[in-house]
Write a structure and sequence with these properties.
434 Repressor (Amino-terminal Domain), 1% strand, mainly alpha, 413 residues, 21 helices, 70% helix
């Protein structure tokens, strides 16, 4: 964080006619937190959101350009990403960065390798993903160049779209923002070249996620709403499930950006539109253009819980997290979202439990995710925030489960 951020908070507070103590009380924070921030200290994104809500302004109004939270990296991670960086950001010369090889590419094999890479992403096997993606990207780039036109060229572009989709998602997940932007930009360009509007829309939806993680809430919401408007089906009753899923997810991206920016009216309207798409489908579907990410009544209900958590309504989260379409029985009938989506939902539940002082229950939620998706959990800043909050508020000795989760997340008390 920079001193400019502290200045923006101070300015907004003074415009609202509030003292530091009054702002802290309204936001549910300690006066020392507000004082530290205004003096140029560092706070979490969640804290900024609480301050903005108390000031009656958008979170983005408090922020300076760029992400307010530094990216956490390690040497092993940097080494794995380096080869992918070389492919996505090649040196510029007079020749093509990836000229075609003399041997004709085997598009069928490239398609199979792409499926393996996609499976690695959804199995949270990021090490395998990072190892395979660079060679795959080089090969598909060469294939696109080798087949300069015709059906083979279009097939090579379609394969590259899928490879770029996984590269963009993975790089966003591990907070390599510049590379993620490159991958998603190229995906959108390839999709437009093929006239595949839903693939382009799904790429833009992923770009919204990237902007969201950079705290570019206003841009993310505007972009998501715009693409949702563009791909709205003429008749919902006649639209394919895949079209509805892509359209619905665009609105869910708008929800995520708006609610984090305290634009609750925009979030509620976007959520209403997403629900209409989910109701028309009637079940959870794995959208082809979303490459394995599910959409349907259960997914929209999870986002509804996320909205409650963003508003700070922890009690509503716990009251509704396992009821209705989110109950086990309903999920057996309607379909279960992808594991990462469900894990994200359970992080909201863990956060709600921690907010209400249910320290051990919050820990057990994290421990269950750790058991099923350790690689995914390791990259979730929200999990670390939950445990850090627990460390601050816990008066008694830590339980063995708390120590286990804290050690996994590399946290010290």
């Amino acid at each position: 964080m920079t001193k400019e951020l502290g200045y923006h908070v101070q300015n907004q507070r003074q415009l609202a006619g509030m003292t530091q103590e009054e702002l802290a009380h309204a936001a549910g924070l300690s006066p020392s937190t507000v004082r530290k921030l205004e003096q140029g200290g560092s706070v979490r994104m969640e804290t900024l959101h609480m301050l903005a809500r108390a000031l009656g302004t958008e979170t983005s109004a408090l922020m300076t350009p760029g992400s307010p939270e530094p990216k956490e990296v390690n040497d092993a991670h940097s080494i794995r990403v380096m080869e992918l960086r070389k492919v996505l950001l090649p040196p510029i010369g007079l020749g093509a960065p990836f000229p075609p090889t003399g041997e004709e590419p085997n598009l069928r094999n490239l398609r199979n390798v792409t499926r393996v890479v996609t499976r690695s992403y959804f199995e949270d096997d990021y090490s395998k993903l990072a190892d395979k993606l660079p060679d795959l990207m080089r090969d598909v780039n060469s294939a696109v160049a080798y087949f300069g036109h015709g059906p083979e060229h279009e097939e090579a572009l379609a394969i590259r779209i899928e490879a770029l989709r996984m590269a963009g998602r993975y790089l966003t997940q591990v907070r390599e923002d510049d590379l993620a932007y490159q991958a998603l930009s190229r995906l959108i360009s390839d999709a437009q070249a093929l006239g595949r509007s839903l693939d382009a829309a799904a790429g833009i939806s992923s770009m919204c996620w990237l902007f969201l993680r950079q705290a570019r809430f206003t841009e993310s919401t505007a972009m998501a709403t715009s693409i949702a408007d563009e791909i709205e089906p003429p008749k919902i009753s006649k639209a394919s499930a895949d079209h509805l899923a892509t359209w619905g997810w665009a609105y869910l991206r708008a929800v995520a950006g708006a609610v984090r920016n305290n634009q609750y009216d925009i979030a509620e309207e976007a959520l209403r539109m997403a629900r209409s798409a989910a109701t028309a489908i009637g079940r959870e579907v794995q959208g082809a253009h979303q490459a394995g990410v599910s959409f349907g009544p259960v997914t929209t209900a999870m986002i509804d819980i996320e909205v409650s958590m963003a508003k700070g309504d922890a009690r509503s989260v716990l009251e509704n997290a396992d009821k209705g379409v989110l109950s086990y029985k309903a999920r057996q009938k309607l379909g279960t979202p992808h594991r990462n989506g469900w894990n994200r939902h359970r992080l909201d539940v863990a956060m709600a439990k921690q907010r209400l002082g249910l320290h051990q229950e919050a820990t057990m939620e994290l421990r269950r995710i750790m058991g099923s998706s350790p690689d995914w959990l390791a990259h979730q800043r929200m999990a670390k925030d939950i445990m850090r909050d627990l460390y601050r508020k816990r008066k008694r000795a830590l339980t063995s489960e708390m120590r286990e989760v804290g050690a996994f997340l590399a946290l010290d008390r």
